[in-house]
């Protein structure tokens, strides 16, 4: 397999691009970015310097992924979602001088394997999105999302848990620190920590 880069894309020679990855119209990949195998970067996607994407990540149209973000394998980033990297952004310092690279603190974000982020969601820096979690469209995520967690809203709240197939998990029973769940679509069984289950709104 080979890397496919559309003629209108701007991909730095100092970026690492994995085998089988496709980078489409007007996407930009900056120096120091590391893109895994079999990824799809759609029209207008922006991958900042130092960003790391795992294998088989789908980055839809006009997604912005800024410095400080790490995305593991198999993550879906819906159209126009954005990752921030500064909780106290300013263009200038108090004396009026333009802020430079040393004048702010980078906020790091981790999105774990298989998670899905809906269109127009905003992921505030400093959070971890758990494996197979699902973020609703338009959500403002400002706190950690547990594994398999289903969140939506502004601010995003935990509303349940989902199977890797995407269906909402159903509670079977509870045993101490664990809630046993079942997927109604594929019959997958997943244990959810009781403390996480009790946070559902």
Q: Main attributes?
A:
7-stranded parallel β-sheet, globular, 33% strand, single chain, mainly beta, 201 residues, UDP N-Acetylglucosamine Acyltransferase, domain 1, 9-stranded mixed β-sheet
Structural class: mainly beta
Strand content: 25-35%
Could you tell me the number of beta strands? 25
CA distance, first residue to last residue = 46 Å
Largest sheet: 9 strands, mixed
Low-confidence stretches: none
Average pLDDT number: 96
Mind telling me the C-alpha Rg?
18 Å
- Strand arrangement within the widest β-sheet reads 1-4-7-10-13-16-19-21-22
Reading off the top of the CATH hierarchy, the class is best stated as Mainly Beta
| Helical content (DSSP H or I, runs of 4+) | under 10%
Query: SSE string, helix = H, strand = E?
Result: EEEEEEEEEEEEEEEEEEEEEEEEEH
CATH fourth-tier homologous superfamily? Hexapeptide repeat proteins
The backbone outline, from C-alpha atoms, is globular
CATH topology: UDP N-Acetylglucosamine Acyltransferase, domain 1
Short description:
With 201 residues, the protein is an all-beta fold. The chain has one helix at residues 194-197, and strands spanning 4-5, 10-11, 16-17, 22-23, 28-29, 34-35, 40-41, 46-47, 52-53, 58-59, 64-65, 69-71, 76-77, 82-83, 109-111, 116-117, 122-123, 128-129, 134-135, 140-141, 149-152, 157-161, 170-175, 178-182, 189-193. The chain is 2% helix and 33% strand.
